[in-house]
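Hey team,

Filing this mostly as a record. A colleague (T.K.) asked me to run one chain through the structure pipeline before their review meeting, and I want the input and output archived in the tracker in case anyone asks later how it was produced. No errors, nothing strange. Just documentation.

Input sequence:
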Amino acid sequence: MPTKSQKIRLGIFMFSGLLALIALLIIIGSEQIFKEKDVYYISYKDVSVSGLEVGSPVKYLGLGVGAIRDIRIDPEDVSRIVVTIALEPGTPIKKDARAVIASIGITGLKMIEISGGSNQAELLEPGQYITAGASIADEITGKAEIIAEKIELVLNNLNRFTQPENLDKISRLAESATVTFDNVSSLIVENRRGLANTIVHTQAAIARIDTISLYLLETSEQIHRLTLSDTLGQILSNVNEVTMKLKRANLINLIDELSEAVVRTNDLLRTIDHDMERGSVDFLKSMRKLRSALNFLDQAARQINEDPSILIRGTSLEEIPDDELDQ
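Output structure:
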């Protein structure tokens, strides 16, 4: 059985160890508690902060940089929740950074996730507000609402589409389309040869068009080569020389000579026209005489055909147009 002195020494030892443990805890806690922090604020408007607690972690791109120090309702706007966070000193928070509420696993607890921020943006000073960003849940909820609205719209359209009167219209339209397709199919079958010939002719026409296009291309290339050659320049220079010579020539005499040539040409044309008119009159007379002679010959042939004995006994022909033939 321990003696009284042993009990006293054991009590002193345990008390000393307890004091040492308390001192160690105080030293470690004071280092964390009294260490200076960078304090920022986040304002969430009309956003549920369920799952956020004082002491919940704050991470920057997945790296723990602090904790939530306070959560309160803004007394000036009850629709806003102001979250105070304490970050490690020197944490670079940019003005275009966003603070979103993220989940911690499947526990239902939440944390603050800071992301974004560009190198070109200025640093946000401690004591200022970090812009609140939409959480993944909010984005999913918003997209779900949009999808639900679209599904509702599709269902409404489907409901209108399946009305009896619309179904009757669709049935009639399907029947009309079937009849039209049948008619088109019959028309194609009946005119298959014509369609084939048309396709052949079309292909031949396309081939001719291709040939013409090649010819036009070759012609344009020749024209291009001609424009690049000296021939065109020589032609233009010759035209210029002719123009200069015309300018230096006596235009009045040239015009007089041209007028005299025109008058002579007109006289010659009138003479030719007169001769042609006389020749046409003589031609018409000759044609009338020839027509009369043919009529008499036709009459004689009919008489011989009716009575061949005329060739033996002869006949007297009256009004033989000998005088006209002589004329």
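Quick notes for T.K.: The helical segments are 4-33, 136-161, 164-190, 192-228, 230-248, 251-306, 310-313, 322-326. The first helix runs from residue 4 to 33.
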